[in-house]
Amino acid sequence: MRPARSAGWLLLAGALLGCASGAAPSASALPCASPVPAPGRLRLALPPESFGRTLSVQQQLHITASGHAVDLDAVLEITPATLTLVAMEFGQRVLTLRFANGALCEQRSAKLPAEVRGADILTDLQLALWPADAVRSSLPSGWVLAEDSARRVLTHNGREMETVTYSGPTRWEGRITLQNVAYDYALVIQSVVTAP
After folding, report:
1. Would you list the domain boundaries of the chain?
2. What fold characterizes domain 3-195?
3. Which residues contact 42 (CB under 8 A, 6 or more apart)?
4. Looking at residues 137-158, what average pLDDT do you find?
5. How many other CB atoms are found less than 10 A from the CB of residue 140?
C-alpha cells in the first residue's frame, strides 16, 4: 500500500471497527432487506459461514463503467456470522454494507451513483472470493461457473457473463480483476490481508 494512503487506511479500519462494536452506525441503524440485484442480474447471497474462514483485508478498488472511473479504499471483513464492507473516497465514507442472517444492511452516500447496488457488490464479492463449490451450489438453472488456477468464468445459457482473473493462488491476496461482460463494467481489487 502506498504510504500516502496510510491515514486513510487508519480511518477506514476505525470505521469498520466502529461498525463491529456498534460505536458508529450499528447494524440496526442501517436499512436492511433481502438482497435484490438489478433486474436480470444474478443474485448470490451465500451465508458468511460458507466462506469457510475468518478474513480481514484492506482493499483498493478501481471501478470503470460507462466511461467513468472511481477509486475507493475499502476494508472487507468476513466472519462466520457476518460480511462487512466499508468503502471510502477521499477520506469520507461512501458505503457501508453488512450481510448477516440473510439480510443486507446498507448505508450509502448520496454521492454514490444509483447504479452501484449493494446486492450486486455482494454478488461480485462472493463470485470472486467464495469457494467455487459453494458458488456452484447456489447458481440457478442455466448458470455455470468454470474455474482454473488463475481464472473463473461465469456463463448463463452458454453466454459469458463475467470473468474473474487472479494474480496469485490465494483468491483474496494480491490483484483480482472482475470483468462483467453483460453489464459492461470492470472492477480491479488490490488486497492486503490484515488478519487471517
Report:
1. 3-195
2. outer membrane lipoprotein receptor (LolB), chain A (2.50.20)
3. 123, 127, 139, 140, 143, 154, 156, 161
4. 95
5. 8
The pLDDT-based confidence of 32 (bands split at 50, 70, 90) is confident
Query: What are the φ and ψ backbone dihedral angles of 184, each rounded to 5 degrees?
Result: 55, 55
Angle at 9 between CA 116 and CA 113, to 5 degrees: 15
How many Cβ atoms are within 10 Å of 83's Cβ, its own excluded? 22
Q: Which residues pair with 178 in a beta bridge?
A: 164, 187
What pLDDT, in 10s, does the model give residues 183-193?
A: 888 999 999 88
84 three-state secondary structure: strand
Closest CA to 85 of 123, 139, 111: 123
The three cell numbers locating residue 38: 438489478
Indicate if the pLDDT at residue 15 is higher than 80: no
The predicted structure's pLDDT at residue 14 = 43
Q: Is the pLDDT of residue 149 over 80?
A: yes
Of 127, 94, 101, which Cα lies nearest the Cα of 35?
Answer: 101
**CA dihedral defined by 89, 188, 82, 84, rounded to 10 degrees?**
0
If phi > 0 it is left, if psi is from -120 to 50 it is alpha, else beta; for residue 164 that is beta
Helix (H) or strand (E) holding 171: none
- In this prediction, residue 37 carries a pLDDT of 63
| CA–CA gap between residue 189 and residue 167 (Å, rounded) | 10
pLDDT beyond 80 at 140: yes
DSSP state of 139: P
